[in-house]
Amino acid sequence: MRRKHPWATLPDDKLLKVRLRNLKLTIEGTWLESCLEDLQAELEERNLRIRPHAWLSEEWFSPDTTPGIAIPFYLAHPRLMRLERKMIIDVEGGTRRECMRILRHETGHVVQNAFRLQRRRRWQQLFGRSSTHYPRFYRPNPASKNYVQHLRLWYAQSHPDEDFAETFAVWLKPRSDWKKRYAGWPALRKLEYVDEIMNEIAGQRSQLPRGPAVYPLSQIDTTLGEHYRRKQALYAVNTPRTYDRELHRIFSSDTRHRSAPTAASFIRRNRSYFRQTVARWTGEYQLTLDSLLDDMIDRCQELKLRAPGSERQLLTDFTVLLTAKTVHSLYSPSRRQWFAL
User: What are phi and psi of 234, to 5 degrees?
Assistant: First the structure.
């Protein structure tokens, strides 16, 4: 039976005052159990004798001290998933498909640490040194064929460990057809190495003993409000403010168009479409795009811009503008910090 939680009926303002440790959540009895069972079945299909243990925490991560995976707490209850969507817009891992993608990635870290793969010379030749310091920022090359493409924002390019975890995830996914998908790519050498090394360690036991859960939910004294203030700050980005000319090319400040809808109201009315469309094609987080849209709306109001003409053309033109500004911000030296999944 599903356990009832008194906080589940609280309004948002009161729920945000609840401390994470007082949520009293577990993975047992949730849809996450089924995802973990599917993950284990995928590992057993490859004869990998490792069973990552899982626990709830603030975010996704896999420590190097135990063969396990931390799963964000909000996935363990529908009320918290709704709050996550309201506060962050994206619910990372909130669908079964995305949850499995991230679980495979995290399992790559587990396997790497469990068998100390990063100590092998060939591993270092292909992926780099695991001891490389994690960068505060990384500037991916979307056109690069040296890396597989699995999680958003070309995450394999951020660090050698992430490169391996992403490559492992592509290899592990059932029916991924990676030999055909990456034919002719330098990244294929990495996939072939993973295939070779996984066949070598098949049937072997982990060299990393199971240790205690790291930063479990039961020990986190932070309130939900504090958690989301911190998390929202991670998505903040200093976007370029030099888009007046582009806005003028799409909209108009001519008094002849004073009867047309304001540009600000046009963007507000379609912001969900803009946000979702650009996020899908750029990989950017919707909360970051929402902040950029707020800035553009404010600027349209200051410039007293109107939205005359074809709605279809306006939608196309503004989507292109938002995409261009988003791609620019991905390469900006002032890009916000990204954290490992």
Answer: -65, -25
